[in-house]
């Protein structure tokens, strides 16, 4: 029964009591899972009081402490063997207790777990080096570089350790083993610097050679800086011939396909230091001619500095020209149809380079044909061809190429839409300078057949006139007048030609044909020329007839005045009477003219004639004919029909016009009334004067 009671009591102890919840409704303030997590995180940051310091006073306590710590480390390792930091802490703790053998054991166990961990090897080797266990350290480094040969840190540490120990041969041997693995660039330079620290220049040179050979055989795109470093190494140690040879090998190796401006800048600076200025200039020019301009900014800058320091005026000008050429190249690449940029570029090239270069630029320029066949787009472009042809003829002295340029240009032009007469004429003049008259005539004849223009006819006629081929000139004038019968200048020139040749009847017949044309661009010029022609031939009757015919067509005041002046100068007998008669006729004819200024002009010309040649009676008569000038006002209207105010203008009232007689009388009466008003005002202002006058 006692046993049963005991078991019952134990059972009662094991069953937890469940609290009874009286109110199962939700709480007013709800706590979220996020809030619980945040509070837990905040409580983690609360500072816990540090553990109490433990002082070990005897060996037993120490051993007990060691046992506890080792058990803790072993437990941690047992929980997660792959966490290397636990192994390293364990080993470092054993090292701090000078338990080197135990630390080694721990590192070895760790390496069995993860031998690829770099930190583990480094800590292991550092422990051996700290405790001056050199052979152990060597063994560890050997194992490390054998196991992980691509980890450069092992090699650097190993070589540095050997060098610090003064084992130069051992360090060199490690470097050699490293180089067999063909490491990256910095490893080679470390080896070279190692040899240089011990003045082993020949060994360093051989390493450079091996490295250069390695870059040639292994790397797809070898870097130019390795060659430059090699050359500078030779230069630094005063092996100038070797340095030059290295640069030359580099230039030859990279060739023209993979040119790099840094190589040529370094090469040029080396030669500059050796006072080989001509070699420097050759290097810069060679590179600038072959490297694309956008990739040679630094090269060009250094070349400019060099020329300013050591070059003459010509060299500096060459630099400036090269810079401007680069600018023009950029402009024409950006916009190939910028013909002004091409003109500037060609002017620069012509002044500085050879014929082949100039031709190349001209060919590139004329290849940019305007995309639209409209003459306004071609006006600048055509001058590229003209300048090209003139360059070939005047500068290059190549007549054959000049002819080819002209012919290519004329074939390119769309003559059915438009043409350039200047190109045909320049080509013809060129052929004449070459004493090839048939080709010149053929060119001009082709131009008139394909695209007749006034300028082409005039140029062809002028050419034949200079050659004194008058029959050809007549035929050309006939063709010209068939093409443009309204052109008065052509008729006049044709008649003048016949006059010069002494064929007066042909000249007169040409004039008659001309004035008989239904449409003329400048008929007044043609009539004047015809009249001057008859006056020159002293055919006064024919001249009078011409004036009468002209007056039938127009009653212009200038024609009447010219007719009167002709009569004054033509005949000696009765010339004054004839001239006065013309003025009389003109005055009668001009009465119906609406343009009163023209009539006034006629009367003024008549008055000038009478003042010079007339009598008192004729002078008095013309004075009576002169009009009165009065000021009037008229209403103005805007374009939309609204009132725009008033304007003043001058009008003329002629005494001869009967319709204007009442106006003249009214004007005279107004003037008389105004005069009387002025007199009465003057009398009112001076009463004493009136008294004296009455007494008198």
TrEMBL record:
Alphabetized UniProt keyword annotations: Coiled coil, mRNA processing, mRNA splicing, Nucleus, Phosphoprotein, Repeat, Spliceosome
SUPFAM superfamilies assigned to the protein according to its UniProt record, in alphabetical order: TPR-like (SSF48452)
Protein's organism: Menura novaehollandiae (superb lyrebird)
Name recorded for this polypeptide: Crooked neck-like protein 1
Residue stretches spanning the membrane: none
Top-level lineage group: Eukaryota
Subcellular location: Nucleus speckle
UniProt function note: Involved in pre-mRNA splicing process. As a component of the minor spliceosome, involved in the splicing of U12-type introns in pre-mRNAs.
Positions in coiled-coil regions: 533-599
Region spans: Disordered: 676-696
Pre-mRNA-splicing factor Syf1/CRNKL1-like C-terminal HAT-repeats domain segment(s): 85-377, 397-548
Predominant localisation class: nucleus
Family (UniProt): Belongs to the crooked-neck family.
Pfam families linked to this entry: HAT_Syf1_CNRKL1_C
GO cellular component, one term: nuclear speck
Biological processes annotated in GO: spliceosomal complex assembly
Database matches in Gene3D superfamilies: Tetratricopeptide repeat domain
